[in-house]
Amino acid sequence: MQRALAPLAAGLLAVGLWAGLAAAPPDAVQGQVQRIMYVHVPAILTGYAAIGLVLVASVAYLWTGRAAWDRVAAAGGELAVCFIGLTLATGSIWGKPTWGTWWTWDARLTSTAILFVIYLGYLLLRSVVDDPARAAAYAAVLGIVGALDVPIIHFSVEWWRTLHQPATVLKPQAPSIDPAMLRVLLVNVAAFLTTFAYLATRRYRLLTLRADALARALAGR
Fold first, then answer.
1. In a domain, 196, yes or no
2. Which of 24, 60, 191, 195 could form a disulfide bond with 184, CB atoms 3.0-4.6 angstroms apart?
């Protein structure tokens, strides 16, 4: 599976990069700077997918106690931090020419930053608790609680007055985005999700190999 995902992800990323920079039309209002959307939006959606993986795997771990589920959650948590961090970075780059500032305590920005800190803490918690079973259990609880911030982020633009624009794709009505832009955006979403799938399976395998090596070392003592 990994062998198929790697070239597929690379190909989709290449096509998505070319389409975002060259094929998609510039925005009528924001001009060329809007092209960062083709990284920013896929990054946050992939971050949501990573957190969803953490949520499901954490519930499964607490229910079954199987270490394999904990490794799935750990892989998802690491990638969640990466993609949410990328979201915050690209959002700041987009915000400077659009809003005139790199950062503002907007409801969506703030709640996304909180999510980033929660999952940084999730990774830190795994590293500071010595007992693997307790570390996995504590991390599972935090992973589940942290996921509750995702709907707050998504609906923040509807619940509060924010600078951030409302949803243009994930909305009840038809997407308020040019079809040509939407096609390019969907290609990049597919590219990011495929990349996430490859990295998650790769990381899970590495964690499994490390666990097996540790078990053999302890058995040999």
1. yes
2. 24
